[in-house]
Amino acid sequence: MAKISVIGTGYLGVTHAVCMAHLGHDVIALDTNAEKIAMLQSGQVPFHEPGLTELLEDTLKSGRLTFTTSFADVAANADIHFVCVGTPQQVDSNAANMSQVNSAVAQLAEHLASPAIVVGKSTVPVGTAQRLHSELVSKSPAGSGVHLVWNPEFLREGFAVQDTLHPDRIVLGVTSSEDAQRVADVYAAAIDEGTPVVVTDYATAELVKVAANAFLATKISFINAFADLADATGADITQLADAIGHDTRIGRRFLNAGVGFGGGCLPKDIRALQARATELGLADTFEFLTHIDAINQSRRDTIVERAVIALDGSLHGKTVTVLGAAFKPDSDDIRDSPALHIAQELADAGAIVKIHDPAALPVLSTKTHNLQLCEDLESAFDNSDLVLHLTEWKEYRALDPNALGDRVKSRIIIDGRNVLDRDLWSSAGWSISYLGRPGS
Ligand code: UDX
Q: Do 338 and 401 share a domain, yes or no?
């Protein structure tokens, strides 16, 4: 078993540290935020992720997982260092903000006095690994004894533990097959299960990640563009997706039309990719990503426009119930969330917005001022003129439209995720409409 460190305890870092300790490795995890480290040390995960708290508790008890804020500690206790810090979008451009990666690698390098492998997992612009490799060699006391491997991460929020323990593939960008073998040994359990390993160069490894996310984003905007066409022609987008999805070259997954994609990855990754492609002289070729982004953003406007129409042209004084705040179910992540964006737009335009989410309300309470946060799902419907279903938590599919009908002022619901049962809601006297399905 390996002695590893994980630098950065965000979504990726915490999950990676806990899962690696669960597999039997000795793990020391670092964050510069002492409050976060104290929380993790006491067994609390700072975000909602199914199964992770239980696994954190187990691994803390095992003694294989420790936390620190000191780079000296990390260098002294591990010889494989996973860099898992965030690369958010820059405030004033589409490019990725690399300050956390640069700072983590620079601080780590200072303390690397003996041979070590640094493994980059953060999503970075192509060319970063080559630069970091040179910096590690020039700034570390161990010099060329420090090697770099690029190992992008593909975990999905809500399935983070499963995706880390049983990944679809392992990608290793390396400069030597020995380095590839040492990092592959950390993932021996997954490789023994048959997980494919792609050993390649740095640039390919970096690009695999952004190519995967750009492809997924394209699939979603593609189907959403057809949802508009379905609305214009009376076609049914769900049946269309099912039918093209039967073609195994296309596949049905990521063809769910609705309010579009959000979160901390897809939106910023397509923008950062376009920014990097532009730097490399490929602005025209990658222009299509502007359209993918624009189609996605327009989904949010579509729902707001539909809401105004459903409310007879005016939002003022009207009560709108919004089901969901997180960008996807089984997560409390509200970064670039379509649901929250729409709720905020409606509230800013004068509606009284009551918002429910099974997990994200505590996060919302510090970030919003003009939304009414509803802990209780049923009472979120009280006095409502319009209900919007915007994040597809399973709780919402189990709602009883008959009972809820007595709570609202008007039985009108717009399903922005195209998953609620039309017959169930219609037979309870609701007007239900969708994005891209007839009868909308
Ligand atoms: C994504 C990638 O899937 C993952 O591999 C990468 O490591 C990080 O980015 P995540 O951000 O957790 O993961 O969410 P994902 O499950 O990809 O969903 C992204 C968004 O697309 C969500 O807002 C979701 O609601 C939306 N979506 C997804 C659709 O609108 N339609 C679909 O068919 C699928």
A: yes
Residue nearest to atom 32 of ligand 1 (CA): 254
- Which stretches in the chain have pLDDT values below 70? 440
Q: How far is the CA of 224 from the centre of ligand 1 (A)?
A: 14
Tally of domains within the chain: 2
For residue range 4-44, what is the model confidence (pLDDT) as tens digits?
Answer: 999 999 999 999 999 999 999 999 999 999 999 999 999 99
170 and 260 in a common domain: no
- Structural domain span for residue 281: 235-440
Q: Which atom of ligand 1 is nearest to the CA of 338?
A: 23
Report the C-alpha gap between 421 and 121 in whole angstroms: 40
Is residue 215 one of the residues assigned to a domain? no
- Res 241: pLDDT: 98
Same domain (yes/no): 424, 338: yes
* One domain, residues 46 and 191: yes
366 and 432 share one domain: yes
Indicate which residue's Cα is closest to atom 15 of ligand 1. 156
Does residue 125 line the site of ligand 1, with CB under 6 A? no
Q: Is 265 a catalytic residue?
A: yes
82 contacts 5 by C-beta, under 8 angstroms? yes
CATH of the domain at 43: 3.40.50.720
Flag whether 22 is in a domain.
yes
Give the C-alpha separation, 172 to 180, whole Å: 6
Cβ 292 vs Cβ 334: under 8 Å: no
> Per-residue pLDDT tens for 385-433?
999 999 999 999 999 999 999 999 999 999 999 999 999 999 999 999 9
Q: Kindly state whether residues 264 and 381 are assigned to the same domain.
A: yes
Query: Which are the contacts of 282, defined by CB distance < 8 A and separation ≥ 6?
Result: none
Q: Which residue's CA lies nearest to atom 3 of ligand 1?
A: 156
With 0-12 / 13-18 / 19 or more C-beta atoms within 10 angstroms meaning exposed / middle / buried, residue 7 is buried
